[in-house]
Amino acid sequence: TTPVEEVDPQEQRELEGRAAGLKVANTAHATRAIQECREACGGAGYMAENRLTALKADTDVFTTFEGDNHVLTQLVAKELLTAYADEVRGMSPVEWMKFAAVTVSDIVKKRTAAQQILQTLVDTRKDNEEDGSLFDRGTQMTMFEDREQYLLSTAARRLQAASNREENLFDAFNFVQDHVLHAARAHIDRVVLEAFVAGIESCPDAEARELLSDLCDLYALSVIDEDKAWYMEHRQLSVERAKAVLRGINERCRTLRPHVPALVEGLGVPEHLLGSAMLDATDAGRLG
After folding, report:
1. What would the pLDDT profile of 39-75 be if each residue is shown by its tens digit?
2. pTM of the prediction?
3. Under DSSP, is residue 167 helix (H, G, I), strand (E, B) or coil?
4. Minimal CA–CA distance to 77: which of 1, 3, 187?
5. Looking at domain 83-269, which of 1.20.140.10, 3.40.50.720, 3.30.110.30, 3.50.50.60 is its CATH number?
6. For residues 159 and 176, what is the distance between their CA atoms, to the nearest angstrom?
7. Which of 64, 28, 33 is nearest to 188 (CA)?
8. How many other C-beta atoms lie within 10 A of the C-beta of residue 141?
């Protein structure tokens, strides 16, 4: 083990930010997924024998337990913005823009895994207005990177301006909090995507790799769709291409549906936890 006094403060901050971001992503996804399943099953989803209500009760607490997700997202943003603290103080607007153009890009491109593979995908992207380009991994990664880079640089600039106006730093932070949280979420999304891509590249089984690739498309397009307004406002997504995002999501859902049992099995969920009354053929008539 490394003695405490030898721990690099920057690496420690990055580790804390990464842990906070992944906790937010995991718990928010679990809560949303269970709620979607509950609603999709109608009244049956609210019956105790079908277990969804118990799952919801068990997992909902984790959005605030071991760190409130909102506060942890702020922690992610703080770690990202810490790099600016000393450098931007006293800079003129022109000096700031030059600094941001270089530094923000470096922060975003400090990759989490399989750096060479990820950079190759970005460099060989086929970025155009055709629907198919949205399935291009390099295009997806570039869209995630560009969003994070823009949000991070503009959040830092607004925070600096707010600090100059407000005597109370707490008030200054609150003034731009929505922007700061958006930048942090964009960072978390990008980290998850890059980890997903790295995992696919390291998968030795060709069939499994193809299935995971479709699942990765679904994740990437879903994130883009959720923040579609931002992409369109900043002219990174045309109206027609925005429509293509939803078509792509539906296409991947249709492709993945027959493979759901294999995906569930791949998660290693114990068999006794998978059963519920509404999945039992003998109860199908009663629940229908």
Report:
1. 999 888 888 888 899 889 888 888 888 778 999 998 8
2. 0.81
3. coil
4. 187
5. 1.20.140.10
6. 6
7. 28
8. 21
